[in-house]
Design brief:
alpha/beta; 10 helices; binds uridine-5'-diphosphate; binds manganese (II) ion
């Protein structure tokens, strides 16, 4: 059976010993558990002409969020033990082992952007859980839907359970070696709403949770806020959602994920590239307006990269939102 190297069996003990040696590294200066956000893009240049520009905006968005909330950030461009959409598994594991100070490793796809720069993940809610991922219990466990959860954004606690979990998850892709296609056909039969293309990390994760029910109690399927929201439902409505919030309505989504848009390759999109680019620009600018506000600027409109001054009044540090 596939497993990542080096094999480790007593990580909780090793990590605890390390933390006892460096107790001041346990929490951030704000008293929150240390978190490392990791995202990734291919090692070579994008084929699609605006792909690298998209990636630059996507990482700026994440740097801004992490700076405002004291989250560490790591940008990966390497292909380690697994490539393609599986690239996230080995890098999450490497970060756990190399950063015992980090309680949580937070994966975020490059095609996902923060759209609420204020929101903070309620980490205390997850005591007793080792994985947090956007998803719905019924959709995953009852209806076995491929889109019952979304593997584009998730957090894993730095512990032995997670290392073991990553091995089991990776094995679903790796044990079949060149037969990723065969495994893909198998999960296509087991899950609803999935084609029979080669096994992907999301189908693998759902299949793991279905076939090993004892793992479920450690996995928090989060629906109470938008750790992942589908861009098609969100991006055309930012102005409306902002106005709605300002008149006492609910807040707009935390993260907007451009599932089905392949910004870097420009290939195999489920939507025309022009629509993806247009809506992604709006999402970035919507978030960037929140970043620029304390500096006194905002975008001329969500579809323009130019900015305009908000006001020339003097600035009161107490009034700053971010
Ligand atoms: N990725 C990467 N290198 C690659 C392919 C993918 O780093 O060669 C990462 C990238 O962050 C990407 C994620 O894996 O966002 C998942 O792929 P994608 O977003 O295309 O899948 P989707 O969310 O559309 O299912
Ligand atoms: Mn994605």
């Amino acid at each position: 059976k596939f497993h990542f190297s080096p094999q480790i069996a007593n990580w909780d003990l090793q990590r605890e010993k390390w933390l006892q040696k460096y107790p001041h590294k346990r929490l951030t200066p704000q008293g929150r558990p240390q978190t490392i956000l990791v995202t990734s893009s291919p090692s070579g240049p994008c084929e699609y002409p605006t792909g690298d520009y998209f990636l630059l905006k996507s990482i700026k968005n994440k740097i801004d969020y992490c700076r405002l909330h004291t989250v560490e950030i790591y940008y990966n461009m390497a292909v380690m033990e697994m490539g393609g959409f599986w690239v996230k598994l080995p890098i999450v594991r490497r970060l756990m082992l190399q950063h015992p100070e980090a309680e949580w490793i937070w994966w975020m796809d490059s095609d996902a952007v923060f759209t609420d720069m204020d929101f903070e993940i309620p980490l205390d809610r997850y005591d007793g859980f080792n994985m947090v991922i956007p998803g719905w219990d019924d959709a995953v466990y009852k209806r076995r839907e491929w889109t019952g959860l979304n593997a584009g954004i998730f957090l894993m606690r730095n512990c032995q359970w997670s290392l073991d979990f990553l091995d089991m998850w990776a094995a679903l892709g790796e044990d079949y070696g060149d037969n990723k296609r065969e495994m893909g056909e198998f999960v296509a039969k087991q899950l609803t709403g999935r084609g029979d293309f080669e096994i992907d990390d999301q189908a693998g994760l759902i299949w793991l949770l279905i076939s090993r029910p004892e793992l479920r109690s450690q996995v928090f399927l989060e629906t109470s806020y938008c750790l992942h929201s589908y861009w098609v439902m969100v991006a055309p409505r930012f102005e409306e959602m902002l106005a709605n919030f300002e008149t006492g309505g609910e807040r707009w989504p935390f993260i907007t994920h451009f599932v089905g848009c392949k910004f870097c390759s420009g290939k195999y999109n489920s939507t025309p590239m022009e629509t993806c680019d247009h809506e992604a620009k709006r999402a970035f600018n919507f978030a960037d307006d929140q970043v620029l506000q304390p500096y006194g600027y905002k975008h001329a409109s969500l579809s323009k990269h130019q900015v305009l001054p908000i006001s020339h009044e003097s600035i009161d540090p107490d009034e700053m939102v971010l």
